[in-house]
Design brief:
Radius of gyration: 13 Å
Shape: elongated
CATH superfamily: BFD-like [2Fe-2S]-binding domain
Number of strands: 2
CATH topology: Arc Repressor Mutant, subunit A
Helix content: 40-55%
Order of helices and strands: EEHHH
Bound molecules: FE2/S2 (inorganic) cluster
Length: 66
């Protein structure tokens, strides 16, 4: 699903950006190599970032191999 219509940024793009360290909409734009146009997606991007950060935090940590 597209969250940013102007720049064609999808949920999965936001998720990938969050896993790479993005924590705010401007980080997501940077990670996608795009810049904001109308800014109408900022709220949706923030919500998705928060959702993905929570999801990543709730994942069990991978155990290091001995
Ligand atoms: S909807 Fe994202 S910049 Fe317009």
């Amino acid at each position: 699903m597209y969250l940013c219509i102007c720049r064609a940024i999808r949920e999965r793009d936001v998720d990938a950006a969050v896993r790479a360290g993005a924590r705010k909409p401007s980080d997501v734009f940077r990670a996608c190599g795009k810049s904001p146009q109308c800014g109408g997606c900022a709220c949706d991007l923030r919500e998705r970032i928060a959702h993905t950060v929570r999801e990543e935090a709730s994942r069990p940590a991978l155990m290091a191999a001995d």
